[in-house]
Design goal:
The complex is a heterodimer of chains A (442) and B (813). With 442 residues, chain A is of the alpha/beta class. Chain A is built from 13 helices and 15 strands. Chain A folds into two domains: 58-201 and 262-440, Alkaline Phosphatase, subunit A (3-Layer(aba) Sandwich); 202-255, no CATH class. In chain A, 34% of the residues lie in helices and 14% in strands. In chain A, the strands form four sheets. In chain A, strands 1, 4, 5, 6, 7, 8, 11, 12 and 13 form a nine-stranded mixed sheet that branches. A two-stranded antiparallel ribbon of chain A has the order 2-3. The longest helix of chain A has 25 residues, at 311-335. Among the domains of chain B are: 1-99, Immunoglobulin-like (Sandwich), CATH 2.60.40; 102-196, no CATH class; 381-561, no CATH class; 659-812, no CATH class. The radius of gyration of chain B is 31 Å and the shape is globular. In chain B, helix 6 (312-324) runs antiparallel to helix 17 (602-614). Chain B has 813 residues and is of the alpha+beta class. Chain B starts with a helix and ends with a strand. Residues 1-9 of chain B have low confidence and may be disordered. The chains are: A alpha/beta (442), B alpha+beta (813).
Chain lengths: 442, 813
């Protein structure tokens, strides 16, 4: 089904035009079946670019569900009237003249290593729709589900070092799915929460008493049965995805160094203290282990930012553990020489209203809010864009979610204008109409 | 009109749409489509541009359109080659030019240009400070916002072209949404003319759209790789004053299957591959569809002799397949049928003894006899109860705190009540009647739990209406809470009228700590319309407004809903039963029927619904018909010409077993029962009364329903890496293999390896191993270490592991 039109016009009309330009060559001479022809012809008018690893070899995408206030984090307004600035104070950062909200004291010290975009302008003020856009770069449509950025990265590059390309900590989110891509590009959810020392990803190791020789025998006999079944059942994506997951599982099981990536108990007490023994700390520490071992894309969810009431108290309780963990992550990656190849992206869903409401909270506000990027070739010590005096409108350099996503894809070596194939031979751009934000690339 | 329509518009092979033309006064315009086709149902060709048109002096021909010049009766003659036909044209005596109208001209322009879509100014808070009602559901509000919200800002009556509205829309000034139309476009002219006329509001009696039609209503094309055929469509709107209008240039178009037939924004269909599709036009609050059939390019269609119809289901399915020229797969073997039916109707694979007996049974009606036996089994009752418990959300939220959710005791009583109804094969309409009209104590009348959720946070009447529509009418009315449904017939009036049935539903605490009384407040039986604050009285969804006469409106609702006259109810139940047996509904998703999501085979769904009604809503009888059909018994192996079919049931579809069925199947074939926390020993996963997805790792990992909504989509069967890891290494497989009495018996009886392998194949996959499989397995057996006393059992355990991990085992096919 076509997606409902947008003001920008109809993309489908353009696609049809492009199709009609297709020159049909010597079909039969090339010995192609009709099915081959359709596959190829669909391909021919697809915008195709070969993805090659870019500056960022991995991404840690931290998503703050609920919609974190920019005023209480990256973009405080200490000069604004009280009903706009709220009761929280500010802290000076490593950048002269730049302040963050008081609960970002640790991030303030590493402000010279990161980029804060203060002029991100969204269009969705509903949790579900906004988080869909943050994961996919598209607005939600009744007709088509779009793949999340992690699934696209998995699709473009595949696994590395025997590890799943895309891992979710702690588990896979509703809108972080594979969309129209095959289920085999889905995130691997680590399952339990990596808080404390009990954390263990289930079923990564062979059960007691089963050695690799027996696993080989099992795999071999299973493949005989699969061969037979697949010769009969030719047409099910689910079968293909299941098979893909068995292959991934086998490699994960047989590679101890891959399994070790999930082993949080191998971390020293000092490093655990550094990140903080909090939910945020342990999730980010695990994310660091995963990218260090070779996972390409890690999504870390850390929810609970929907502060319609009592925002100051909630922020004071909730933000410091994230602040500590995030600053530890940035410094840790930097010290290990991984920051240049690991892009850390912190997004929320939307911002919050300029004025404090009658319950001392702030409501949903999509017009302007902030996001943070670091590493992977992103500028260091950079505050990009600004908002007006009350954080009601973007002032300098407004950018969109599509622009930020395009830039992240660019750093990964993926041209966001590339088209992937949706069902019905429908080529869809990875991101539709995003602009590269050159100013935040180092 | 009748006399006009009597003139036959069809020449030997020529048709024209529309087949009679009524122009609403001089200046009115009508486009036409001319089609040539050798016979009914044969592929058609759009010959509009090559047709020669001639008409009387009252009409001017402008390309492929007619423009009225003067009132009167006239005619249009269409000639293509040696053929021609003539149709009547009536031009009404109406004022010319028609006065500009906000609702007839301006609102449609906003819709066509996308200004009032949800991503632009139709969003709940508008966009950049300007809001239009979504898809124009509130024209009065839109008129107010344009003319009075900021007087003088949006419209410039003195100099219409300087109006911010037009400058923004043409991107003459900065507009976040870019350029929506050009200054020389008809959309621009419509808005310009309205402003130039002083931006008048419409008189109160101005005509409203009463319906739209898409022409031609059905279209057959033939796929062609070298030149994909295209064909124009026309959208006609009917108005309350009896006038009709060609609104093709104002309509929005979409296809439900772009891979087969796409449609351009001008309404031109292009066929790209063989199959069936629907294209839709949207105008005002209406959506109308046209069915597109694209025949394969090759003429090689043949029907296999072995595929003969067995009952009415096959008649409907086969006729659709013949129409689309999709051949069916061959009938499935006895063993394949046995396994499929066993899993679908009892949630368990057949035992080896059952397999042997069935394969050698000479009774020609053995398949039908098997199905009857399975439907009478207690396992069927468990499975069907689970299916409904999922969408009726039978879950316990806690032990005894009414405030935060339904207590365990109440959930258990609710489950047992449902199970008793299904075990007794009570007519399903009666079961639903009990639920919808339920009141009293949730413990002594467990059906009242249909209305119990968290005591402190009861469901709103609107949510209850949404749930009821989705469960029993297979349609989602949620969209119409805030605006008329963009892709369906439901308006806000429908929504609030249906919600009003539940306005009086209330609850109070009972004597027991876990008891809730559901009761109706007789004086509360209307809902408030959010646009104008009007009180909306109960009205059946798509039906009349009943007279309440002091009765609980829910009683009237239950009567209407479950009546044999209410076809959507029977069709929804039938479609759910069908989807259970095929892994896909005739309408899919089963609870999202819409005008824009029509059944893939209307005749089939109608026949199943009627059959259910005739049988007195006997679900077992319907499932017997379905599983006794040839269609159900077709092989899942495809042939090239039906491999791409995913909606016409030309072959059985492979589908992963649902979590509970997979858990029970592993337990059954290994003979190691699973233990589920909080359940009596011996409980199978399908029999967990409140669902196990919250507590059991296996069930959660394999996507069991959490029973949190009425949506059938809560049951998830897509594979994940976590599932593969769990079957490979996890405790479910491992402990079953360690403890399996099946393996113990084979070892104790020193069964030769070849025999043991065969026995395990029969048990897990309901078939013999192939020669190839046996040789691969025996290669492994030969390399066993004779000195290791555990080697023999380990080997058989590995064989069993390979079978339990195969997709052939984890899928139904």
């Amino acid at each position: 089904m076509h997606s409902p039109q947008s003001c920008q016009g109809y993309r489908n009309a353009r696609l049809l035009q492009r199709r009609s330009l297709l020159q049909i060559g010597a079909l039969s001479a090339a010995g192609l079946s009709l099915a081959d022809f359709f596959r190829l012809s669909a391909r021919a008018d697809q915008k195709h670019y070969q993805s090659r690893e870019g500056k960022a070899k991995s991404v840690i995408h931290i998503t703050l569900g609920g919609g974190m206030s920019a005023q209480e984090s990256w973009d405080p307004k200490p000069e604004a009237p009280l009903e706009y600035r709220g009761p929280l104070g500010v802290v000076k950062t490593a950048l002269p003249g730049v302040v963050f909200s008081e609960s970002l004291a640790s991030m303030a010290k590493v402000a010279d290593k990161i980029t804060v975009v203060r002029s991100l302008s969204g269009r969705e003020a509903d949790h579900g729709r906004a988080s869909y856009t943050m994961f996919t770069g598209y607005r939600m449509s009744p007709a088509l589900k779009h793949p999340s950025i992690g699934s696209v990265v998995s699709h473009e590059f595949g696994p590395r070092n025997n590890l799943p390309a895309y891992v979710s900590v702690p588990d896979s989110r509703e809108f972080a799915g594979t969309g129209y891509l095959s289920a085999k590009y889905a995130a691997f959810g680590v399952g339990s929460d990596p808080e404390g020392n009990r954390f263990k990803v289930r079923d990564l190791s062979l059960p007691e008493g089963i050695d690799t020789a027996r696993l080989d025998a099992r795999k071999d006999m299973r493949s005989a049965v699969e061969d037979h079944f697949r010769s009969l059942e030719t047409n099910a994506d689910a079968l293909g995805a299941m098979d893909e997951f068995y292959q991934q599982a086998y490699t994960l099981i047989s590679a101890p160094e891959a399994r070790e990536a999930f082993n949080l108990s191998a971390e020293s007490p000092a490093s655990i203290d550094r990140y903080g023994k909090s939910t945020a700390g342990m999730r980010l520490l695990l994310a660091r282990r995963l990218v260090a071992a070779g996972v390409r894309f890690v999504t870390v969810s850390y929810d609970g930012w929907d502060h319609h009431s009592g925002i100051a108290d909630s922020i004071k309780k909730q933000l410091p553990p994230l602040d500590k963990a995030l600053a530890a992550l940035i410094s840790d990656l930097d010290e290990q020489g991984l920051l240049d190849s690991t892009l850390v992206l912190v997004t929320s869903e939307f911002g919050r209203t300029p004025k404090i409401n009658s319950s001392a909270g702030r409501d949903h506000f999509a017009r302007v809010f902030s996001t943070m990027l670091a590493g992977g070739g992103i500028t260091k010590g950079h505050i990009f864009g600004s908002t007006d005096a009350t954080a009601s409108e973007p002032d300098l350099n407004p950018v969109t979610v599509e622009d930020v996503m395009t830039t992240v894809y660019h750093q990964l070596g993926i041209v966001a204008d590339k088209e992937l194939m949706a069902p019905g031979n429908r080529p869809i751009e990875i991101i539709d109409g995003g602009r590269l934000i050159r100013d935040i690339i180092a | 009109m009748a006399s006009l329509a009597a003139a036959a518009p069809v020449a030997a092979s020529l048709s024209v749409f529309p087949d009679t033309i009524i122009l609403d006064g001089p200046g009115a315009r009508q486009s036409i489509v001319v089609q040539q086709s050798p016979a009914k149902d044969a592929p058609a060709t759009d010959v509009t541009t090559s047709a020669a048109l001639s008409a009387g002096p009252e009409i001017r021909i402008d390309g492929t359109s007619l423009v009225a010049l003067a009132p009167g009766s006239s005619s249009l003659t269409i000639s293509v080659g040696s053929e021609s036909l003539t149709i009547p044209v009536e031009i009404r005596n109406a004022p010319s030019p028609r006065p500009v109208s906000f609702r007839l001209d301006v609102e449609p322009a906003f819709m066509r240009a996308g200004c009032n879509s949800g991503s632009c100014h139709g969003a709940g808070r508008g966009q950049d400070g300007f809001r239009l009602s979504l898809f124009g559901y509130d024209p009065a509000g839109d008129y107010f916002r344009l003319t009075q919200e900021y007087v003088g800002r949006r419209l410039d009556l003195a100099s219409p072209a300087q109006s911010l509205l037009l400058e923004k829309a043409t991107a003459a000034v900065t507009h976040t949404g870019g350029e929506c139309f050009k200054p020389d476009s008809p959309l621009y002219r419509s808005i310009f003319n309205w402003i130039a006329a002083g931006a008048p509001d419409d008189p109160p009696d101005s005509p409203a759209v009463t319906g739209i039609r898409m022409l031609p209503p059905q279209l057959t094309l033939k796929a062609s790789a070298s030149s994909p055929p295209s064909h124009r469509t026309i959208v006609m709107a009917d108005y309350s004053d009896g006038s009709v209008r060609d609104v093709t240039s104002l309509a929005l178009f979409l296809s439900n299957n772009d891979g087969t037939a796409s449609i351009s924004k001008e309404g031109t269909v292009t066929a790209s591959a063989s199959g069936g599709a629907w294209v839709f036009g949207r105008f005002d609050k209406f959506t109308a569809g046209a069915e597109i059939i694209v025949l394969p390019e090759s003429n090689a269609f043949t029907w296999p002799d072995a595929v003969t119809p067995l009952n009415f289901i096959d008649d409907a399915v086969f006729s659709r397949l013949r129409q689309l020229q999709i051949p069916p797969s061959l009938p499935a073997s006895d063993a394949a049928f046995l396994r499929r039916a066993r899993l679908d109707l009892t949630g368990l694979p057949p035992s080896p003894d059952e397999l042997a007996a069935f394969s050698t049974d000479p009774n020609p009606d053995k398949r039908s006899a098997l199905v009857s036996r399975l439907l009478d089994s207690p396992e069927f009752t468990d499975l069907w109860t689970m299916k409904w418990a999922e969408i009726l959300q039978i879950r316990a939220n806690n032990n005894n705190n009414l405030e935060s959710g339904r207590p365990r005791r109440a959930a258990h009583k609710y489950y047992l009540w449902l199970k008793a109804q299904i075990a007794a094969n009570r007519p399903f309409n009666e079961i639903v009647h009990d639920l919808v009209r339920a009141d009293g104590s949730n413990l002594s009348n467990p059906a009242a739990n249909f209305y119990t959720t968290a005591f402190g946070n009861p469901r709103k009447p609107m949510e209850r209406a949404e749930d009821t529509a989705q469960l029993f009418l297979g349609t989602r009315i949620q969209c119409a809470q805030c605006h008329n449904h963009p892709f369906d017939r439901w308006t806000m009036d429908d929504y609030y009228g249906f919600s009003a049935f539940f306005s009086g539903v209330s609850q109070k605490r009972g004597a027991a700590p876990t008891e809730v009384f559901i009761f109706a407040q007789p004086d509360r039986h209307s809902a408030e319309h959010p646009v104008d604050g009007r009180k909306v009285e109960p009205r059946f969804l798509g039906g009349p407004e009943p007279s309440l006469e002091n009765r609980d409106p829910r009683l009237l609702l239950a009567d209407w809903l479950t009546s044999p006259d209410n076809k959507p109810f029977a069709r929804t139940l039938a479609n759910r039963a069908w989807a259970h047996c095929f892994g896909r509904g005739i309408i899919e998703p089963v609870d999202d029927g819409r005008i824009s999501n029509p059944p893939s085979n209307e005749a089939l769904l109608a026949a199943l619904g009627d059959r259910l009604i005739q049988s007195g809503f006997n679900i077992r009888a319907l499932l017997k018909d379905i599983t006794s059909s040839r269609t159900y018994q077709l092989s899942s192996s495809t042939v090239p010409a039906n491999a791409a079919d995913d909606r016409c049931f030309s072959h059985a579809f492979v589908r992963r077993l649902q979590a509970e069925v997979l858990a029970d199947s592993i337990a059954a074939v290994t003979e190691v029962p699973a233990a589920f926390s909080g359940q009596p020993a011996g409980t199978r996963a399908t029999g967990i009364f409140d669902g196990g997805a919250d507590r059991d790792y296996f069930l959660k990992t394999f996507g069991a329903s959490r029973r949190e909504t009425v949506c059938a989509c809560e049951v998830r069967t897509e594979p994940t890496l976590t599932q593969a890891l769990h079957l490979i290494n996890g405790s479910t497989t491992d402990s079953a293999l360690l403890r399996s009495p099946v393996l113990n018996r084979l070892i104790e009886t020193s069964t030769p390896n070849e025999e043991a392998i065969t026995a395990l194949f029969r048990r897990a996959l309901s078939r013999e191993p192939t020669g190839y499989e046996l040789s691969r397995f025996m290669d492994r057996a030969r390399s066993l270490d004779p000195a290791n006393p555990k080697a023999a059992r380990n080997f058989l355990s590995d064989v069993f592991w390979a079978l339990l991990n195969s997709t052939e085992f984890t899928f139904n096919h």
